[in-house]
Amino acid sequence: MEDVPQFSASHSRTQSYTPASGTDSPKHAILSPALDQGAPRLTDPDLVLQPDPATFIVQSAKKSAPLHTSSLAMPANTNGNDQKPRGRFIVVGAGYAGLATAIELRRKGFEVQVVEAAKNMTTQGDIIQVGSNATRVMSHWGNVLEQAVAESAQPKDMKMFDKTGRVLLHAPLPTEFSGFPVLYSNRGLLQRLILEYARSIGVEFRFGERVREYFEEKDGAGIVIGDERIKADGVVAADGIHSLARKHVIGIQQHPRTSGFAVYRTCFPLDLLADDPLTKPLTELKEDMFRVWLDTDVHAILFILAKVRQVVIFCTHKDTYEVEESWTNPGDLDDMLKISKGWDPVIVAAMKAVPRDKLIDWKLLWRDPIRQWVSSTGRITLVGDAAHPHLPTSGQGAAQAFEDAGTIGALVDKLGVEEISTAFKAFEKLRYERTSLTQRMGWETRHRWHQTDWDMVAANPEFLKMPQPMWLYDFDAEQYAYDRLDEVVDSVKNGTPFVSKNLPEGHVHEDWTVEMMMDLEKEQAKEHFYRVANK
Ligand SMILES: Cc1cc2nc3c(=O)[nH]c(=O)nc-3n(C[C@H](O)[C@H](O)[C@H](O)COP(=O)(O)OP(=O)(O)OC[C@H]3O[C@@H](n4cnc5c(N)ncnc54)[C@H](O)[C@@H]3O)c2cc1C
Q: Per its UniProt record, what Pfam families does this chain match (predicted)?
């Protein structure tokens, strides 16, 4: 709880993260020395990523004859064969889900090409929580985790106030589980670290290329970009919340519903708080800080990342006008200040310091959990937000993407591309109930904070805590997949019942829909609404 994990003194390029306590390396950590090269240090903040040449089977989308087929000289594999890749995957999207899955597949000896629509790595985004269930996955990636710790926040406590600044709760926050840290990272910085590591182990990238279609054949699946068809053994679609692949997989366009809320979000240099005596002390903090202010239907968060000297402010508010679900939609500072009028002067002063061009208004849209992540032939699977978008109050959007990656890596490692369809269907079975619950948890936390039962809080302030339970944070997704492989494969092939063990003890899965949650939206928070205990 109390300590940041220890690192050994020297870091060779073949080193991976060593947790301070708790679990050992997974039994099946089969990282080959040639692949475990450690991420290079982040040296060039303006790194521009150039597309790499394709090495997969590339055909004209109009003609059936291959334009060219080339092969990649692979580093040593984990299957004992130094020359031949074990199979080829296309990963669509270089967000956390795509990068993590690409690395996990590569670690297991597969050839991987990532196709990303953005030309350069974006610097959009602010803070993202990377729980220990995610850093456990990252711990196998050279010294990526060590660098991530150096650049991330790890607040040791969280204070909650009512809007006037009266303290409601002051609770410790775990900084690690079994030695794997809980991080609050700058999304762009961490993404670059992971990207550089992926490149260093031989994952190929094509940036600035938007996939416009997916296809499946008996012996493979692929994507269409421009007039190129690229085919591989399997496709992992990590194309985010507006996923095109989701439509291909479930056969219909899933329309998101407005949740009635949007979030003003901003991230800016800490020194901008120095001008106001109310916020100046925050600029002198040596430790990371996490503060939350609550009122009916609105909450604000002030986060100080001391190491990288940044401030993050969120203000989740009733969404009274049509804004897009976009990371670039400008926010109206005056409107945010209107919403917080009369609040604790500290949060108001911090909001006044927000540079107008650094505020976005991010609409919170809902999507029902979808049960089907894998296409009919079983060669295309969704991962990350494409499969299970989370609300920010879950703090699990990124972490579940990393868990997806660890799970897929383990399953494809054991089953090979020969049984790709079984592997992907097993992935869906292992993951659906868990992510359905973590998705719901985001709604639950927000509901606790927005429709607060103040009598209940007076009796038990812990009611407001953000849930960080052991079943969720102290979880090894890769190991779980290896451990349950035979059972889940039996279930996929023969329909035998499969009981998830990656849920809270005694939890019985229930499907839920946005409609069901909206019905509860107006009711005051009651314990029985919630499926995830906040302890
Ligand atoms: C710009 C941006 C900023 C974000 N900032 C934050 C933040 O500050 N805090 C937070 O908690 N969460 C943030 N998120 C969301 C968060 O990253 C995800 O919820 C989580 O990490 C899971 O990521 P993902 O890889 O599934 O999806 P994403 O991170 O959304 O990545 C999906 C990727 O797929 C690419 N893509 C989409 N369609 C195609 C296509 N047809 N062809 C090729 N590529 C395609 C996109 O360009 C994108 O890079 C942000 C997402 C984005 C895209």
A: FAD_binding_3
